[in-house]
Amino acid sequence: MIRLYILLLFSNTFTVANGQYKEESFVINGIIEGRDTGAIVLLYSDTLNHIIKDTDYLNKGSFHFSGKLSKPAFCWLLAKGDGNRTNFFIEPAKQQIFLKENNYQEMKMSGSFTQLQNDSLANQTKAIHLKYIKWVNENDSLAKELKNTNDSINKASIENKLSRLSKKIETMNYEILNTTVA
Question: Which of 78, 132, 146, 148 is a plausible cystine mate for 158, CB 3.0–4.6 Å?
């Protein structure tokens, strides 16, 4: 077992050392609307999983980063000192980012296919999440109403609504589990 571990360790090191991971350049050009100066920091992992911290200084709201990657990487973009931050995927390509001061989460980006896929997935899951939250809130409201109701006809009606809603939630849970595990 130890031999296998050592062999795997050396084979991974040998692969990296022999250039099996082809690094290519990435470029990020960005603009922050509503801010002209200040420092902005990009944090990401390189091919060897080293954390890279790169800083640029805004010039009339514009910033620029470049580096090398062999695959898409998740990164953080932070404005030094004020709490503005966002995260996204970069990849070996030219990317453009547009941000608004104090609203980095609503960034617009082009040039990263991985980020485009991530945005698409987030939009799909957002609709499901909103529906799910609506049903859970409705369920909680009906449960409170049931607890405070003494009228047997009204109780039966509420229990019926709760049962149907519970089935909807259960079906959605099953569908989510089915699509994420499959």
Answer: 146
Query: Token pair of 10, please?
Result: 């050396």
Q: What are the E-state strand segments in the chain? A: 24-33, 39-45, 51-57, 62-69, 73-79, 85-90, 94-100, 108-110
- Banded pLDDT at 14 (limits 50, 70, 90): very low
Q: Count other Cβ atoms within 10 Å, centred on residue 32.
A: 24
Summarize pLDDT for 71-105 with one digit per residue, the tens.
999 999 999 888 889 999 999 999 999 999 999 98
- Cα angle value 89/91/93 (rounded, 5°): 130
Which is it for strands 85-90 and 39-45: parallel, antiparallel or unpaired? unpaired
Rounded to two decimals, the pTM is 0.62
3-state secondary structure of 21: coil
Distance from chain centroid for Cα 8: 31
CA nearest to 145, candidates 130, 167, 161, 133: 161
Q: Give 47-84 as a 3 state SS string.
A: CCCCEEEEEEECECCEEEEEEEECCCEEEEEEECCCCC
Tokens 């009906």 belong to residue:
142
Residue 181 CB partners (closer than 8 Å, separation 6+): none
